């Protein structure tokens, strides 16, 4: 049981720019909820505690908000279901908590109910103008370890920007000066749609078409109600290489370059999900995968390296059939994922911005993963395949050493997953996955069996 000792509002330690900030289209279609993350830190030896100072963390956070002052503001709704940021320096929320439990009692830190308690809660029934955009809960455990649980507004940042902020805060906590922190690029107008808005040049199926539903159903309401469970899947470097090699065998058509780790693993996950779900369905069932693509270097010219905001764009694969995904080699599903990724060039992305901007109301374009029941359902028979592989999530050293684990604090939607680097930095990966409980055991069995079969053939 976690108990809260204190709650503080932290504001920038110096005056920061004020006024209204119009948010670009990539922010408008991001989830208006907060992304939950946990950073786990273990004491260096038994019978010791991490030298943690709540005041020091508060002071360094206050200094970090000088550079990252938009996070200290508040959102409010404007016409068309859109949001605007008021840079009013109302501050972020910092909670101090303690738990009599030991870190080992949390197992592998999969996003279960016990882990969810380590992340600050946001009351979404209150007006949006009252929500802090960044909340953090520091929980000390009986074993001397710590968890830094974060809830950060997805309207404000994507994974790369969130990591930039948290790592900068950690650097200040280690005693660095503000001048030592990489300045964020805060001008979001570089991602605005064209003026005047042009007619989109493409059919943006990621926004204009709904995900397939199960054969015989007209909607996903029944699937949405089903209980899910969350797990962490571990892949060694050898297993990753096996999947990459398998994806690049029996390639259908011509590929410019070999399939990546992400394409191979995500393609394997998609096939496994289809295989276990097909038990209660039919091989002619339609399915689609959804993913997000970092567009920073896909635009011409590229965005500034430290662009602070949402510089990701949603994309979806073509609709496929279970029978095609399961009867063809792994290169087929990997190829469908690549097709979706390579669609995201400068012309397509700018067309997407124009499409979003042309919508009278953007509410229907959002999907809020972090609140069950909000937005379109992306689960059975579909899947969301996110990637944190390129994010420096283990650089968040507050002076206690690097975290032993970083991952999502909540996964409560069927079919949602993230592929992440592991703390060992040896090429191994961790996959956080949420799936309907009835399929989880079968998924894990097939996921590893298929890899073992491929390994045995080498």
UniProtKB/TrEMBL annotation:
Gene3D superfamilies xrefs: Chloramphenicol acetyltransferase-like domain
GO molecular function, one term: acyltransferase activity, transferring groups other than amino-acyl groups
Listed Pfam families: Transferase
Coiled-coil residue windows: none
InterPro entries in the record: CAT-like_dom_sf (IPR023213), Plant_Fungal_Acyltransferase (IPR050317)
Superkingdom in the source lineage: Eukaryota
Record family assignment: Belongs to the plant acyltransferase family.
Name of protein: Spermidine hydroxycinnamoyl transferase
Protein's organism: Quercus lobata
